[in-house]
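Exercise 7 asks you to align residues with tokens for two separate proteins.
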Amino acid sequence: MKLLIIEDELELSASIVAYLSSENYVCEQAFTYDDALEKVNLYDYDCVLLDLMLPGGNGLDILQEIRKNRNSVGVIIVSTKDSLDDKVKGLEIGADDYLAKPFHLPELSMRIYAIIRRREFAASNLLRSNGIEINLPAKYVCVGGRPVVLTRMEYELLLFFIGNRNKVVSKASMAEHLSGDMADMLDNHDFVYTHIKNLKAKLAEAGVRDCIKNVYGTGYKWLER
């Protein structure tokens, strides 16, 4: 799962990234209004943490831009501005949650998880597809009650496929999902092929075959049966 942390306090941003990275999120950072606006217009995210007071502009304008483009990404406003007016305006524009500073990082993590679960997996802690069962809080994958041991990248790729079931997803979008904006600096996306190959092999060994279809020249599709 990929997050964008829009926060101009460098120390706070670094601590958020360190904690959420340990929770297996891919984290990108933006420290100014212009940088944040560029990223939300260029890249896709599963959740955005948005400070309101930014060098160069107001975070609420970024939120308006996100929703104007009909981007359904989850947005949590994280700000010292804790007035009722700011909170109401943010929620009216389309924020999903509001967390006042200072806050505990585990609470932030749980709010992120709740938004992603609600938006992508119908508010369920258990995700099922083609005989695969995924316990989202535990990050535990099994088939027929038997565990399937995946690497972090394979697990994220599996969630990405199931979250986009029966849709063609491009190699570029998978590379961006797995590596964030670092994908733009890569010469090729060969690492995506490697993770797909390994994921398919592990699923086939568990008895789940032919779920990932190669769509020639376009990308891949998770076939829901």
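Second protein for Exercise 7:
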Amino acid sequence: MAYLSKDLSVLAYANGFTLWHYATNDTAAAIDTSGYFNPAADMLRSGDIIIANLEIAGTQKAGLFFVRQAAAGTVDVADMTQVGAANTD
């Protein structure tokens, strides 16, 4: 798949920082490819954080993407830091 603007929403904004939420069936590797969020370049800023919910083949994952660059129409996010990777109960 590709980036879908309807799946990106603002959770909080303060002091020039925005916390976003994004839900998709794309893999973390696809999302952290430079250019995935280029269509949102006019909204995202360097330093923003995107909380992502991914569902790949019925397996849910969640993680954080740090926006490394968002300028001149180009967005690059760092590799996803996964949240809740292990369940030991």
